[in-house]
Design goal:
five-stranded mixed β-sheet, 5 strands, alpha+beta, globular, 98 residues
Length: 98
């Protein structure tokens, strides 16, 4: 399974991309990915951002597992802790492997 994180926005509007194979995830994060594939499917998480928020980060998370694919679009304010942990892990691990 492949995980791709695309981040955009923030101060300066910089875009970055990170990806890795899920076989390098911890068991806890593997469970998060399975939950995302099984329950959320594809979609946009529409949360509220603080009034006057500017320079916030937007994310597109793509999970590819054979014939099962999921794309989740969210911003830094509407993701849960599990999704946030997955994003940080993939971004940090991807940097170390470059």
């Amino acid at each position: 399974m492949k995980i791709k994180i695309e981040r955009s926005g923030g101060f300066g509007g910089i875009t970055s991309s990170s990806e890795m194979n899920a076989d390098k995830l911890s068991p806890l994060l593997e469970g998060t990915v399975k939950k995302l594939l099984d329950h959320k499917g594809s979609g946009v998480l529409k949360g509220t951002r603080p009034k006057g928020a500017a320079d916030y980060l937007n994310y597109k998370i793509t999970l590819e597992d054979g014939d099962r694919n999921s794309v989740i679009v969210c911003n830094q304010f509407d993701m849960d802790d599990d999704l946030s942990s997955l994003i940080r892990y993939v971004e940090n691990r991807s940097r170390k492997e470059r």
